[in-house]
Amino acid sequence: MEDLKKEILDRFVSYVKVHTTSIDGREEIPSASREFDLAHILEKELKDAGLKDVKCDEHCYVSAVLPASEGFEGKKTVGFIAHMDTAPDFSGENVKPVIHENYDGSDLVLGDSGRTIRVKDFPDLTSLKGRTVITSDGTTLLGADDKAGVTAIMTAVTYLIKHPEIKHGEVHVCFTPDEEVGRGPDAFDVKKFNADYAYTVDGGDEAEVAYENFNAASARLLVDGVNVHPGEAKDIMVNAGLIAAEFTQTLPADQVPEKTEGREGFFGLMGLSGDVSHAELDYIIRDHDKDKFEEKKALFAKKADELKKAHPHAKIEALIEDSYENMISIINKHFEIVKLAEDAILSEGLKPYSTPIRGGTDGARLSFMGLPCPNLGTGGYAYHGPFEHVSLEGMEHVTHELIYIASNPLE
């Protein structure tokens, strides 16, 4: 297969320069109208490339169809999905990508930002020696999450159109908004997408195929106290802030994000606010094991009840809401799609592997919506901050993997 590096690099650099950061807490989809800026660019590129049924809908979902080659019409239809928005955790505006050709394996200084991607902190860098590595200038994130995935999909489908000698099944493409604020699938029409199986292209290492993620819930503790003048507070004041602080000490100290790895779950305190009158704690609860996940939710509620009994003059309420489930229960019923991805990775001379995702993925929700959807890598690392980086060769590997998957449709 011909070298696609220049095409991939040009495409990727152009995409990351478009500001598409989504905004948390908004009801509308997309959460930020600027996401349409990239959506319309992709819509035009898909049309110009010759894909069919190209559309950017009112919710900023860009979809298209690559019809099957002659003789492949009866095969199953595959979908490729990537998100256009970037994370609101760090600035995604005025991204200035920096290209480090023939990377020497040492620490990467990010311009004049005062930031450095250190090998001791990001050991994946050792595997990228000799490659072309792309970073931001350190003042923004890069946007490889998930514009590397968008790039790989666009390059793969345009390559198949330019090379009709490569026979392939029908391919459905969708570029989505608002994944980074947890709403990517909210307006995704699985029935209209009309694929038998799909892959989100939104992971890390190009040799990874992921099909296991956290079970997830959000949990909130609300405390209303009694506020009086401190000088007259004896036996009257009920300090909501102190009660909330007390609650944080009742959960297992070793089950927090900073002390867990692999399949270990946690209680993550993500926000706290309050004063004497009112206090709030915002947690996320995570575990790969469904039973342990349910136990964690039950423990949160139990500790809140115990706090109520200890502080009868305060109003204490625990709110727990499930967010998403571990998709492995769905993927295990369709494991041939994982095997196909592993064959694609092997075809690139790489050794496929899988690790449990310590987070969520649109593919998890889509799987429970009726579209089995494991997650493929993009060649990128250290997402959601200024240390984000991706290798050009990694993106090229992923592009080739997608071409393999499309040209080897399941029966």
Summarize this structure as a short list of keywords or feature phrases:
single chain, globular, four-stranded antiparallel beta sheet, 411 residues, 10 helices, 21% strand, Aminopeptidase, 17 strands, 2 domains, alpha+beta, seven-stranded mixed beta sheet, Alpha-Beta Plaits, 29% helix
Structural description of this entry:
29% of the residues lie in helices and 21% in strands. It contains ten helices and 17 strands. It has a seven-stranded mixed sheet, with helices on one face. The protein has a four-stranded antiparallel sheet with strand order 4-7-17-16. A four-stranded antiparallel sheet has the order 12-13-11-14, with helices on one face. It starts with a helix and ends with a helix.
Strand content: 15-25%
- Gap between N and C termini: 25 Å
Low-confidence region ranges: none
| Biggest beta-sheet profile | 7 strands, mixed
Kindly state the number of beta strands.
17
Topology diagram in text:
Blueprint (H helix, E strand, L loop, with lengths): L4 H12 L18 H15 L2 E5 L5 E5 L11 E6 L14 E3 L7 E3 L4 E3 L15 E3 L8 H19 L8 E6 L13 H4 L3 E5 L7 E2 L4 E10 L15 H9 L17 E9 L3 E10 L2 H21 L4 E10 L3 H4 L4 H11 L15 H7 L6 E2 L3 E2 L7 E3 H16 L4
Parallel strand pairs: 3-8, 3-9, 9-15
Antiparallel strand pairs: 1-2, 2-8, 4-7, 5-6, 7-17, 10-15, 11-13, 11-14, 12-13, 16-17
Helix pairs in contact: 1-3, 3-10, 8-10
Short description:
The chain is built from 10 helices and 17 strands.
